[in-house]
Amino acid sequence: MRYAEIAVNVPLRPSKSDDRASYPLSLTFHYSIPEGMAVQVGQLVWVPFGARFCQGIVVALSDRSPVQETKDIISTIDPQPVLTGYQVELARWISHYYLCPLLEALRAMLPSGIERRVTTTIVPVAAGDEAKEIGLTTGQKSVLDLVRSRNGLELEEIKRGLRTKNVGAIVGQLMRRGLVIKLLEMERPRVRPKFAPTAWLAVGVEEAQKEVARLTEPARRRALVLQALLEAGGTLGLTDLCARVSCKRETVALLVKKGVLKKDAAGKSVSLAQDREQVEQLIRDAARGPKGGQARALAALIAQAGPLELVELYKIAGISRAGLQALARKGLVGLGEREVWRTPRARLPLLKKAPIFTPRQEQAWQEIQKDLAAGPRVILLHGVTGSGKTEIYIRALGEVVRQGKQGIVMVPEIALTPQTIQRFVSRFPGRVAVLHSRLSLGEQFDEWRRARDGLVDVVIGPRSAIFAPLPRPGLIVIDEEHEWTYKQQEHSPRYHTRDVALKLSELTGALVILGSATPDIATYQRAKEGEFVLLELPERIKVAGREAGERLPTTAPEVTSLLPPVEIVDLREELRAGNRSIFSRSLRRALEVALAAGQQAILFLNRRGTATFILCRDCGYVVRCRRCAVPLAYHQMEDDLVCHQCNYRTLVMDQCPKCWSRRIRYFGLGTQKVEEEVRKAYPQARVLRWDWDVTRGKDAHERILDQFLRHQADILIGTQMIAKGLDLPLVTLVGVISADTALHLPDFRTGERTYQLLTQVAGRAGRSLLGGKVIIQTYNPEHYAVQAARDQDYGAFFRKELAYRGEHGYPPYNQLARLVYAHPVEEKGRAESERLSRALRQCIAQLGLANCQVLGPAPAYVSRLRGRYRWQLVVRAEDVHPLLSETPIPPGWAVDVDPVSLL
Ligand code: ADP
Ligand code: ZN
Ligand code: ZN
């Protein structure tokens, strides 16, 4: 007999009598596998559970069962496992490490709604055994007849087809008699693949590219001729001209015929027949020549490399129906109804190939190549913004794909990184699945199935894309590895993508590349200590304008170690000089310069800045907790200052304890207010605001970004999201309205957060040859995070921050776990958190755990949420697991191991 250990999908509720009870985290049951049923680890199955049928996931197979009595598995739901073997192991680790039920960890890996995608079919048993049919009731007989007549029918259809009640029960009786069996199947994707008039490439990419070159060649030649004439001052000898741009005389003749050029009487020389501006326009228009539509259509299809809907193609390429048919006649393009995958597709087709690497990139690449062959390894690629990290990811992925494996690329947020996604999609045409929370459930299911069925080479997505069921994962890239969005904070399992990736690497041998300009302190520490391979890319790549990227470079690009200059403005000085506006004199001047030059500016504001802390406007002093060193938060209700970590409280002072100034006040400024001020100060400027409030709508991000990229606005005001990996070539000025808001949130990671934000925002300036400038306004110019951001000196920041963490016992020196309890009645919440904190302290004493503390209870930073009061405990220890796996933590508590923030 074979047995399967199964995590069963039953809601686990502790019994009423004992609401303090907790259940074991890895609750599984053993079932026997009927003769002839093929069952694998990771498979979705139906099992009897009490009086019901439930779904479950097979987590192990064995020849023995720890329990005497086992029931049979009823059936498998899909012949293919829904989870790979390594994923089941990964789920066990998640369950243990993040203290969540195993089933929750398993389910986090499945596309949402999968359990509802199951249908039940009743099938007659073929071999007739008359004896089995003796004594059937009429009801039973009619069901059986119907099922036989149709040779199998969905349960729902039987119910609809017969007026008999309790069809379910009758089917059960027929099953016991062995007359019918139930088949449970995973539904085909509910959203059927979409069929639409499409076009696709009928030839290889290379051939298509040759054709693009051929089609655009005449136009390009003509442009070259005009260019040469412009440069020569308008007139050139015919022979000389043709030699210079290596073109035939016909090209010139055609331009003469069109009246763009004219020949002299002797026919020996040509000159421009139109004025300079007209000629320049003609050169720009050359790309849109008569065959331009065909060329662009081919380029779009190369980028898409799957069928592309015609409506889309017309829009992208501006090609005519005749043009398209010409391409089809030449055998380059196929036309017809085809299934289109609902992949969010690249909006701008880019003709891009692997560039020649700079020496630094080459050096990093050599190391990565070595590590790709070496089994589980982790690389930290520390490179400033624009240093060419993404190109390295792309090459590494290419190598992995050549080896027949797949890669995962993690991005902090899809909506904020459309340009990055686009680059991957266009470089692995047709082989990229984008997992996207804004896809419909059906679309998500489709993409998940493509990944599972080995139909893609690369999966891109935010957080949960790490659970893509790839058959042979070879590489996991985590771009901007320091981003907090990689941590699931909302619900269990509260996992961190980076740590899951490290575990995955251990389980599968995949290489992990963590990339960032501002790595997480803990990550950098691990790299310094030799646990990760540290690769540095300190130079920026000079990008020569936007169009340049579309030409294929033939040499390695120039690099520069110069980052845009950063100026710190001391707002206390501004105040002393009588300037009460939100713009310092410096920022005002710089804005005027940028606007006058027709360039763009970004004004950055930390959204969470509406948080209230108390700041002295004369000396910059901020009141902190003496025990935890985090800023105290102002509570209007009680007029108190509160530490959200240990509940230390103190009265609001009306004088600064440091300089006795009375100009002490709480702080907060929103993007709307900034927009108002900007409009007042620069009525002529076109202003765009980009924050969560204005970007609720679908595609709102893309729209705003597009508008700004097209220079339909001069100033972009935004929060965190504009700090992400956007490439905005016309931006020459970045102004940070106030660095302080990020600095004084009551959390131990605010220094790190501020440094990261300031550096990332600064990285948006001067990405083109126009150069750029960054201005950071602050009341705390001496703060090490601000100073390090000015000098763009990660090393200096790292040392200071590490010292601070060490002094107060914060990570990476200790591990933290945050426990939050919410209750509609404040007192109940307080009582329960006091009870648990006592229990934890008792447990520490009993186990004799050294260096293990419980902080709190204290009200959570967001102390009331949806009508519930939130209380929090923080456990601080070298390892929180001995304590937390020993102490029963009742349901109702949200446990967050390694929280990214205590807010
Ligand atoms: P990062 O990911 O570090 O921000 P990217 O890979 O996006 O850097 O590179 C910045 C810019 O430089 C991009 O426009 C990219 O296409 C270009 N680039 C990167 N490497 C090269 C190279 N070797 N040759 C030419 N252009 C490059
Ligand atoms: Zn002061
Ligand atoms: Zn405190």
Features:
903 residues; alpha/beta; 7-stranded parallel β-sheet; 6-stranded mixed β-sheet; 39 strands; 35% helix; flat; binds adenosine-5'-diphosphate; binds zinc ion
Task: Report on the architecture of this protein.
This protein is of the alpha/beta class and 903 residues long. It has 29 helices and 39 strands. A 7-stranded parallel β-sheet has the order 18-19-17-20-21-16-22, with helices on both faces. Strands 5-2-1-4-3-6 form a 6-stranded mixed β-sheet. A 6-stranded parallel β-sheet has the order 25-35-34-26-33-32, with helices on both faces. Helix 17 (497-508) links the parallel strand 20 (473-479) and strand 21. Helix 26 (784-791) packs antiparallel against helix 27. The longest helix is centred in the first third of the chain and has 27 residues, at 205-231. The two termini are 53 Å apart. The structure holds adenosine-5'-diphosphate and zinc ion (2 copies). One zinc ion binds at residues 616, 618-619, 621, 656, 658-659, 661.
